[in-house]
Amino acid sequence: MSRAEKVAVPKTELPQNVAIYAHGLDFTYNPKSPFAKQALCNVDVTIEKGEFVAIVGHTGSGKTTFVQHLNALIRVQKGELTVLGHDLSVRKPDLKALRRQVGMVFQYPEYQLFADTVLDDVCFGLKNFGIEKDKREQMARDALELVGLDFDSVKAKSPFDLSGGEKRRVALAGVLAMKPQILVMDEPTAGLDPRGKEEILSLVSQLNREENITVIMVSHDMNEVFENAKRVLVFRDGRLDYDLPPRELFRKEEEIASMNLEVPSMAMFLNELERSGFAIEDDCLTVEEVFQAVLRLKEARDA
Amino acid sequence: MLKDVTFGQYYETDSFVHRMDARVKLVLTLLFMVGIFFVQSFAVFGFVAVYLGIVIAVARVPLRSVLRSVRGIVVFLMLTVIINIFFNKDGTVLWSWRKIVITDEGLKFAGKMFLRLTFLVIGSSVLTLTTTPVDLTHAVESLLKPLRVIRFPVHEFALIMSLTLSFIPSLIEETDRIIRAQKARGADFDTGGLVKRAKAFVPILIPLLVGGFRRAEELANAMNSRCYEGAKKRTRMRVMKPTWRDLIASIFAVVFFAGVFTLFAMRDSWNVITWLYY
User: Fold this and answer.
1) Which of A60, A78, A200, B194 could bond A26 through an S-S bridge, CB–CB 3.0 to 4.6 Å?
2) Cβ(A47)–Cβ(A214) below 8 Å
3) Domain check: are A273 and A202 in the same one?
């Protein structure tokens, strides 16, 4: 379908509940040079407020390029992109307002810590966004407690004296302190031990559920994608190939394998059950949910 | 953005010059750099230009990337030319206004200075365009070997050089990432006065420094765990060997510079070549 045939939604008519609207988004690194590389190609996607979206794809598939567009670290070259009402295809969007609303957590965020104390580091963003001094400490306290750190015992410590997992939480608190409406994370659990992973993921899920924060998570771990995300975007060679709920996506075992992605173990189990004639509801994704569903099936059969 | 900054501008292709021994290239480049200071007339600069042209053609590097290296010193070049034009007061006055005097000698001198510096940079860029940084450090190590007699740690010196070079791309990448991360937290590098802008770099420099130490430590561990112990009985995978190419190039270069030096030595004594001189 060519671009002209698509019905373009005028920006003013975007419904209130749309968080991210991308239409025909293209991006090329080093354009007009021998090193030119097209990283995004005609990406169309609409994400509503409060969604939990995972973005997966092989290395170099364009997923990182896409998420960096969301707070204008990469500027729109071609196409339309509107994030929380900010039109990012214009020449000078209000970057400060946008970046305050869209929190971005990079890979290994602990590598960006720099301040003398944990408190100063968490306040860095707040200061940049012009929040008054007396409010900052309270907001930093809220954020640090949200990530499960004891404010009074860590606030005066040097961030470099903390353990790896604690550093990551401080970095995360530095983003959460700004109370963003959209949280974009690039592999937030990379390099953590299983328990650290679990803690970060349950925190993110909780933020999504209770604070209604829109979560965009780039991940290589299909198991965590399967258990947490309500919707999965699959990028391949700069194109958005699939945009499906996790259960539906991972039914396509062959396509997934052809993209060099793994099928989550729970999806494999569910697919196997389905082939043997035991269908389980699509919204059962965690071990607990599936366990309950299997019990229900058994009771139904026994009855 | 930062990735556009290329360091060690090696241009990958296969040519006569690319295949030469890095040591020979290094020595000939040094010879060229010394030689260029013996050039005293525009006519001889013409010969040097032809020589450089031949070298560039044989090296099969695009003229554009050669000229790009000149771009780096353009401010320095302009400053040198302007200072020489205004402060050289020999010869006939061509134009004057209050205290500013421009003379024909001043113009000539500035012109020669311009050509000398430009050729100097172009000549050395041919070396870096045709030689990988790794080969270059090997060449330095090999040429410094005699210094071992006075207990100069040649091998360690070369290792430091090559480690420095190999860290540069990853540090650039890391800088880029840290800048993005701090920007996402509202850091602003583009507005405010000098002090404010300088302060804005603290959140970049500290993580970069910490990261640098981390990388260095990891590298030291990796080397230790593979039993690296310095220069002792270490052999090379690629042993450099001068070939017929190096012989031909050396003869070509030596003949050329012999000519340049002869013209320099005879510049006062032989009137017949005064037309070359002026």
Assistant:
1) A78
2) yes
3) no
Q: Is residue B140 part of a domain?
A: no
Q: Using CB atoms, pick whichever of B187, B203, B211 lies closest to residue A111.
A: B211
How many domains is chain A partitioned into structurally? 2
Decide if B161 is inside a domain: no
Q: Indicate whether A195 and A238 sit together in one domain.
A: yes
Nearest chain A CA: its distance from B49 CA (Å): 29
CB contact under 8 A, B182 and A112: yes
The answer to whether position A94 is within a domain reads: yes
Q: How many residues are recorded in chain A? A: 303
Q: Does A188 touch chain B (CB under 8 A)?
A: no
Do A275 and A265 meet the contact criterion of CB atoms below 8 Å apart? Answer: no
Helix-strand-coil percent breakdown of chain A, rounded to 5? 45, 20, 35
Distance (Å) from the C-alpha of residue A23 to the closest C-alpha of chain B?
Answer: 23
Would you call A99 an interface residue with chain B, using a CB distance cutoff of 8 Å?
Answer: yes
Give the nearest partner residue to A128 out of B178, B185, B210, using CB atoms. Answer: B185
Which of A107, A125, A160 is closest, CB to CB, to B185?
A125
- Compute the nearest-CA separation of A121 from chain B (Å): 9
Residue A170 CB neighbour total at 10 angstroms: 24
Mean pLDDT of B50-56: 90
Please report the ipTM that was assigned to this predicted complex: 0.83
A116 lies in some domain: no
**Does residue B175 belong to any structural domain of this protein?**
no
What is the extent of the structural domain holding A56?
3-107+180-261
Residue A238 within any structural domain of the chain: yes
Kindly state whether residues A200 and A85 are assigned to the same domain: yes
Which residue from B186, B203, B210 is facing A129, i.e. has the nearest CB?
Answer: B186
Question: What's the average model confidence in pLDDT over A2-14?
Answer: 51
B139 within domain boundaries? no
Alpha-carbon separation of residue A40 from A129, A231, B111 (angstroms)? 30, 20, 50
Instruction: Give the residue numbers spanning the domain of B58.
Output: 7-131+243-278
pTM above 0.80, yes or no: no
pLDDT, tens only, B155-209: 888 888 888 877 888 888 889 889 999 999 888 887 777 888 888 888 999 999 9
A182-186 vs A102-105, strand pairing mode: parallel
Q: How close B181 comes to chain A (CA, Å)?
A: 7
The number of folded domains in chain B is 1
| A174 contact B CB<8A | yes
